Structures are given as structure tokens and as C-alpha cells.
Amino acid sequence: MCRILLFFALFGFFVSIGGAWAADNVNAVAERYAHLVLALGQHDPDYVDAFYGPAEWKTQAEKEKKSLEAIGAEAAQLIATLAKMPDAATSDDEMLKLRREYLLKQISALAARVRMLKGEKLKFDDESRALYDAVAPSFADSHFDEIISQLETKIPGKGPLWERYEKWRKPFVIPKEKLDTVFQLAIKECRARTQAHVALPPNESFTVEYVTNKPWGGYNWYKGNFHSVIQVNTDLPIYIDRAVDLAAHEGYPGHHVYNSLLEKNLVRDRGWTEFSVYPLFSPQSLIAEGTANFGKEVAFPSKSERMKFEKEVLFPAAGIDSKRADEYYAVQDLMKQLNYATNEAARRLVNGEIDESAATQWLQKYTVAEPARAQQGVKFIKRYRSYVINYNLGEDMVRRYIDKRTGSDPEKRWSEFGKLLSSPRLPSGLTTNRH
Ligand SMILES: [Zn+2]
Question: Which of 282, 305, 371, 380 is deepest in the core (most CB within 10 A)?
Fold first, then answer.
């Protein structure tokens, strides 16, 4: 009896020593990974989306200016080190398992980005699998044609649909001088709705800036210390539906909340340094964009609730006739069904099946975009390539993951959503049956 007890005591001792040893090693890999992301940022100005770790790490990366070869070799080493580590199977803390898998995939994605910068050409789906841990479904033109034919009946007039659409939606532009007032109202509402369900760090904050000449519509720059700068591109007219979209996507409960919760729960509370850096071309982006897009439905669990707010607050603040809100959103709902068309244009352009001008034409037709907007779309695709899947596929994957766990219970939805925003779950982990 005594001997058995002694055995268990010793066994427990070694398991806990082993656990501590593994955690130390994972921490060491995590820190080296963060340095590697900064090193790769020296070769690719879009790569480091956010970094709020020790400032000297960044200076060090600038001084060292590691070669792509050295970065690739170090990534391979880190992957081998992680692969040799026990997979925390002895731990009942799922977060530790997720952490190890997350690091493995993030470092593999970094290695793929290194190969791309060295000139390797990947096909669209291979690239999205390597960088974002996911592959978007393909759709034939006929799928979009069907949606387009429904839109044809809703938009009056003669001529190409995009031209009629532009004319039809003119009354729904937010006048430039009212843009900030309307956005601030949308942000206030989304923030209040988020705060009622998610414990936000008490000093979280963000500022909004209006910019021009960018390939994107809006961008959240996370500065650390629970602060973001949200930039809105005013190159093209901004329509009323963008107010809630932008407030939820960039702010609450989207990017700003996601980054703040990662900093609070993972970096500060657990000391997981890998989350003090955010590499844009990595699986983390699918989770970031997917949760940011789906966030609107979490904040406004029903369309009628959102419409009430739009009609009573946003439309009047923008000076837009709220009696036309239902008509406007019926068309927007159809437009949303076209969002996978951007993936198709990107897939064909990246794979060299069509050239830039054909991609512009395709976007013009299948996303019902005026030429300037279609050109902005092609600019975005050329710079960010398969990143486009993170928005629509990301949203659909997050929706399925959350719905499966919560049904239609809005309260449960908030709690699962908050958990997802505070964990290192990967895109492929959204589709497994594991909880
Ligand atoms: Zn985004």
C-alpha cells in the first residue's frame, strides 16, 4: 500500500516537473516566434499588423535584419522543437493544447510567407491553406448569375446593373460632414451592447481617423495597452450600411475587442508573449476577420433589432429617409450573397487565369461595382491575395462554430463568442467536433 502511494507521489512529482519543463520550453519557442515575426517584418512592410511587446525587440530586428534564409531556417528549427514536445496531453487545460497547435500553425504560415517572399508561387487554395489554415469553396458563375437576376428586378432603370445600382443608392450616402457623427453613434451603440456581456478592460479606448488613398475601406491598428486607432478610407462615398458594419467590425465586438481580450487574458494574465505580435498573413487573421464580421450579428441578435436602431438613430443622423431603410437593406442582403465573388476574382487572378483588367470587369459585374470600386478591389487583391477569404469564409466558419454550440440563445452566443476571442483557436479547430 505504502509503496503504491510512494509510486503515485513520485509519479505526480515527475508529471508536474515535466509540465513545468514543457511550459518553459513553449514559452521559449513563443518568444523566439515573436522575434521571428518582427524579423520577417523587415522584409515585408504589411506583415506585422500589431506589436506591443518590448520596444527593444523591434530595434533588435531592425539592427539584425536577418536574411530570409536565416528566418526560414529558424522557423524550421522551431517547428521541429515543438513537434518533439509532449503535446500537453497530460494536461486537462485545453488552452495549453490549443496554444501548442496555434504556435505550430503560425510558424508554418510564417515559413510559407518566407518562401513566397523568396519567389515561390503558390496557387490560390494552396496559399490560403498554408497562410490561413483554410480553403474557400468555389462557385460557378451561374451561382452569382442567379443572385444578379434577383437584383435586376429590384433596381429600376436601363443600362448595366452597376450603373443603375450606383444611381439608385445615391440617397443612402452618408454626407461627408455627418460621417463622424454617424460613426460615433454606431460605435456608442455597439460598445454598450458589447459591454453588457463581455468584461472589457476598464481603460480600453480607441480613436477614429479619416484617411485617403488606401486599398482598404477601414483598418484597425492595435497599439497595445487596450488602445486602437481605427482608420476609415474616404476615397469613395460611404453608404449608411457601413456605419454599423464598421463600428462592429473594427470596434465592438470586432478587432478592437479581440485584440484587447488577447492582451488582457493571454499576454498579461498568462504571459503568452506570442500574442503581443500579430502577423497579418497567418491563421490568426481568419479568426480576426471572421469574428469581426460575425460580431455584428452577436451585437444585434435579430435583424429587426438592428433595423430599429438604424431607423431611429442612424438614418436621421445622416439625414437619410428612414422610410426607405427596409428597401435599402433588402437589396444589401442580396448584395451580401455575392461576397464570395471577390474570392473567385482573386482565385482566378492569383492563379494567372485572368489578367487585371479581366478581374476588374469580373468584379464590376459580379459584385455590382462601379469601375472605381472594382479597381480598388483589384488593388486589394494584388496586395493581399488569398487574404480575401478571411472575411467571408471566416465569418461563415465562426457562425457555424458559434451556432453549433449555442443554438439561437443570444446570451450563450455572447459567452461562446467571448471565449473564442480570448483563446488561441485555429481556423481548422473551428470545424472539429472537439469543444
Ligand atoms: Zn478587418
Answer: 282
